[in-house]
Amino acid sequence: xxxxxxxxxxxxxxxxxLVALLLISxxxxxxxKFAETCxxxxxxxxxxxxxxxxxxxxxxxxxxxxxxxxNVPDYPDSFVSALDHxxxxxxxxxxxxxxxxxxxxxLQANQMPQMVAKNSGRIEMGLAPYxxxxxxxxxxxxxxxxxxxxxCNEAIKEFVAIYNDGQAFYSLYQTIKTLGQIETVETQxxxxxxxxxxxxxxxxxxxxxxxxxxESAGFKRPPxxxxxxxxxGLVIESVSDAADGDEMQESLALDVIGYNNWTQExxxxxxxxxxTVLYSDRSEIKDWGNAVSLHFKSKYVLGFSNHSGDEGxxxxxxxxxxxxxxxxxxxxxxxxx
Amino acid sequence: MIKPTxxxxxxxxxxxxxxxxxxxxxxxxxxxxxxxxxxxxxFADYVDVKSIGYNDLFEDYRQGQDNKxxxxxxxxxxxxxxxxxxxQKILNLQGSLADDQFFNTHWLDVLIYRFSTLGTNIQLRxxxxxxxxxxxxxGYAQRVHILGHSLGTSVLHDSLAKAYGEVTDDVPDPLxxxxxxxxxxxxxxxxxxxxxxxxxxxxxxxxPDPKGCTNRYREYRHLLDPVARxxxxxxxxxxxxxxxxxxxEEYYRLIPLTTVTNEHGDTHSIExxxxxxxxxxxxxxxxxxxxxxxxxxxxGKMAYLSQSLQGVADKAEKAFKNxxxxxxxxVFDFVKAVKTLEQFIEKLGGQYNG
Lengths: 337, 354
Prior knowledge:
Chain A is of the alpha+beta class. Chain A has helices spanning about 5-40, 50-65, 75-80, 95-110, 135-145, 150-195, 200-215, 315-335; strands spanning about 115-120, 120-125, 130, 225-240, 250-260, 270-280, 290-295, 300-305, 310-315.
């Protein structure tokens, strides 16, 4: 027989393999999904003021798509110096210095902020305002030169739209990656719902209260354990010292307190244990007894009881039904031979 | 034309994504009739609407209780004893709770969401839908908008607080408040402060700020909606929640509503909120693309006001006078307010729908 240490190591090895597999599948999936987007890059149409900038952003998107495997991007010069394009409509170095400094800081942190065009020569970047145009009449006149009939507000709107198009594309891979991570955690929580031991309202509240204590503002995998508290159930109990005909009976069981590890899925290793009180109506032996329940796969129970010296054993109705089901399968199987 | 996306999150009660979507669509149909230039169009012509449901998770829990009927049967057949009485008490508690319709559709929703781990399953579902919506918009997070109603506002807040929250071992790349800032959030009858748990609403990243996950944050609070009165979120402009600039520019806006148009006094319903021009015009402005001539807006507002029911408003004011705006209210006060509202609606011949 292997030592428990060896078993733990083997389990850890298996878990780490599974985690690695999950991470790889998230990465591969994100790569594939982003690659699909890369197949559909199109050039911006109806550009009136900033044709060069639109071309640069388009090229930057194409460039990103050539750098496989995709990763968090190194932002090309077209983003670093994007705001210089506003000089074509009268922006001056002095007016651009603050927003350029903020942009450099964002890009340094590998984060490309969104922009919003505001009237009167103002741009918001990351919800902070920057006055990029000093002289509006000059801006209007230059915008009109670039695009006949145009004006400063329209030109800034177009600049921001082109920029945001690139910004959205450059943040897309990261978003796809995040989705994969959220989906993995969601699957774990779905497993928790499906495979953990059923809970009464107060168990739900108690376990929730314990979990909330450690809950933070970020998604984490579910807890592996759950407390069992005043959990009612039905069992079939056998007490050999009971009067004839009374040995095997349906009994009420109340798991007073216990603990279950829902991630333990090997059917032959108990997933949980609880102190249980049993109650049944038999002549010659005490109606109630103390018991210890072993829980398997978070659902089935095998237990041992003691009614003031009269010992017995029991299984949960679920377990009995499982055996019945298996027996029927076996009989059906045997009938064919 | 690339349409923006509006995600809907329902409140308490037996909703499905489709049923809540139908409530939204029907109301928007009535809203569009208020404005001649929109009368031949639908909201879906301008915006992709997607509805997120979570009631199935509550339903699964309600139906998942083991052997309840057989348990009752056996318990009845046993002779009376002290132990049996204790069993009976425990079973009765679980059973009566599960059989009570109001408890099941309102109490249980709120209690399970707020106090159990099931809340996380719901938050993950919403976070996934939001992230998918950003991807569907080609990474253009500003084109994604979300509306939550009642309990759905708590779900909305908590889901985003985690999706844009801390880096964890399991989600090392949460959404970024810089690169994936959403277009706008609409909290209709906001319960997020009352039900706040792992993080206070005023401390989370769910705010219209450089360090927040949205460009716009709107709260709609009907003064005669008892549910919206319980522990409201009333941020101040002193710079502790959002920047002075965002405050001055009104990137946060509380929209108080007063008019009652529902004959049964259901001031809490999503229909009642959406039909009010103060609500839907704000949504049109933020989600974008729906432009109405100034003259038509006035005309629409007049048409809306002509449907107001002062008599019902007076009755509502009287019925809800004991449910005051309260800063220290608990979940129990909240459910009491829902119950009061339900009784009021039924008294006026209507049916409370969550």
